[in-house]
């Protein structure tokens, strides 16, 4: 990076009735170790105190600017922010998610491997509940460079609050597809954009869990049937352009449906199960049979290996190279911020507010 050695980053925060979580989200953005930020909150026609809350936050950090639009969905809100952005890169974050304080700084460092920083950076995420407590995490994949085909097989980025993307290329791709919402298939707008960018740009990985991705009842990702419809609509034109990838895409669709069914089952979400069960039986019976056989074989194999290791007096669990950084279930995502003490974060915020007046 030359002139872009310290580029302006525009953070885009779509917010709809987000007064319960917006302050925490904005705090995680304002306290980034990289401070050359423009922070745009787009109030998507909220009926609660979201707008006033965002405006008040802007009084404490002059980098924050609040925009308003009639309710049009998250894609239109993000696109509004991207059009208004002055930054070279766009960093979206939903109004209920949070970031590790070094997320942006580490992503910019990762992009330096590309000429002029021309690419997309992503990281892994920790799944958090309403209280910010970790209950899971993304699979720590290591995909970099040309990630188009791996991303077709699995959305390992997994959410809309993780990537750092060049604004010009987002605009060239048409931004987020608001038409999915109009078709009753809101949910995969972020994946569609990532795939479009991946066809022309390299991706860089920051191998750490820097995004706190919040799962709550009623959020978009909890509506499994709509998400599956969205996934199918996104993949249809890709199959038309790349017919050789159809088998991989169909496998990804099955794995996505199975993931949502499994989540609904363990959450005892009977409304979702009632919709998903007949669809799974109708559409994926052969795959379910094959998967059941393969899963039984894997379990039997693991049991056999476990018995053998016990007989030989060896540890049952092999060392994992990611163990030290794996988010621990039942701990707060904020506990991962040990690299930036609270007092330092507060002084940084005060400095930035004064510096950007």
Describe this structure in words.
This protein is an alpha/beta fold. It has two domains: 9-221, Spore Coat Polysaccharide Biosynthesis Protein SpsA, Chain A, CATH 3.90.550.10; 237-300, no CATH class. Helices cover 45% and strands 15% of the residues. The chain has twelve helices and nine strands. The protein has helices spanning 22-30, 50-60, 74-84, 103-111, 148-153, 167-172, 179-182, 189-198, 224-241, 246-266, 270-312, 342-355; strands at residues 9-15, 37-44, 64-69, 89-92, 98-99, 120-128, 134-137, 165-166, 203-214. It has a five-stranded mixed beta sheet with strand order 3-2-1-4-8, sandwiched between helices. The protein has a four-stranded mixed beta sheet with strand order 5-9-6-7. Strand 1, helix 1 (22-30) and strand 2 form a beta-alpha-beta unit. The longest helix is centred in the C-terminal third of the chain and has 43 residues, at 270-312. The chain is globular, with a radius of gyration of 21 Å. The chain starts with 8 loop residues before the first strand and ends with a helix. Mean pLDDT is 87; it is low at 320-324 and 339-357.
